[in-house]
Amino acid sequence: MKKNIVVLISGRGSNLESIISAANKKNFPAKISLVISSNRSALGLKIAEKNHIKNFVVEQKEFSNKKLYEEDLIGKIVQQDPSLICLAGYMKILSKKFINKFKDKIINIHPSLLPDYKGLNTHERAIQAGEKYSGCTVHYVTEELDGGKIIAQERILISPSDTPETLSRKVLEREHIIYPKTIELLLS
Ligand code: GRF
Questions:
Q1: Are 82 and 1 in contact, with CB atoms under 8 Å apart?
Q2: pTM above 0.85, yes or no
Q3: Using omega within 30 degrees of 0 as the cis cutoff, is the peptide bond preceding 115 cis?
Q4: Ligand 1: which atom is nearest the Cα of residue 14?
Q5: For ligand 1, is residue 12 a contact (CB within 6 Å)?
Q6: Tens digit of pLDDT for each residue in 86-128?
Q7: Which of these, 33, 135, 42, 17, lies nearest to 83 by C-alpha position?
Q8: Domain interval for residue 7
Q9: Residue 175 CA from chain centroid, whole number
């Protein structure tokens, strides 16, 4: 039987879409049992809907504090008994309590060769610094932002004509391969 995974998003949802396609294959070890978005207008919600995947919007502004927001999130996730929680463009920082609740089960994809370029605007910063390579990294989520143990990484060459937009497109293509592949490896 396929294991459950929960995907947390905040925006476009292209990584979510790549996991959905992979999970639709018979031999993939997991299915997405729930998508949660921290943002009501996330395009990724439409992708979940189109694919008939249960989805919720849980926005922090609906709660009086972050603790209550996360308690709601935890409650919804626990019900799925997930083997993995995959952050895919999820833009909120998770608390220690949340991370400990799902110890070693939360992973994220980040558009840089970690430990370089943690945080936002990775492509812009890599180009500005004159880096020869960029890439993407799948890592465990810990309390340190983009700082958990690296699980998989893929490197691509930055061409002199690359802009943050072209580089982002190139890296994203790799993200869509490496993320489902890593999930498959972890759960097989
Ligand atoms: C991706 O570049 C991912 O690496 C980063 O956020 C972006 C999400 O894109 N964490 P999408 O919502 O999956 O299209």
A1: no
A2: yes
A3: yes
A4: 14
A5: yes
A6: 999 999 999 999 999 999 999 999 999 999 999 999 999 999 9
A7: 33
A8: 3-187
A9: 10
Length of the chain: 188
Per the CB < 8 A criterion, the answer to whether 185 and 23 are in contact is no
- DSSP helix/strand/coil, 67: helix
**Nearest alpha-carbon partner for 85 in 96, 97, 72, 98:** 98
Give me the catalytic one of 110, 123, 139, 176: 110
Instruction: Write out pLDDT tens, residues 19-62.
Output: 999 999 999 999 999 999 999 999 999 999 999 999 999 999 99
| Count of the separate structural domains present in the chain | 1
Specify the CATH number for the domain of residue 181.
3.40.50.170
| Residue 52 annotated in active site | no
CB 138 within 8 A of CB 163: no
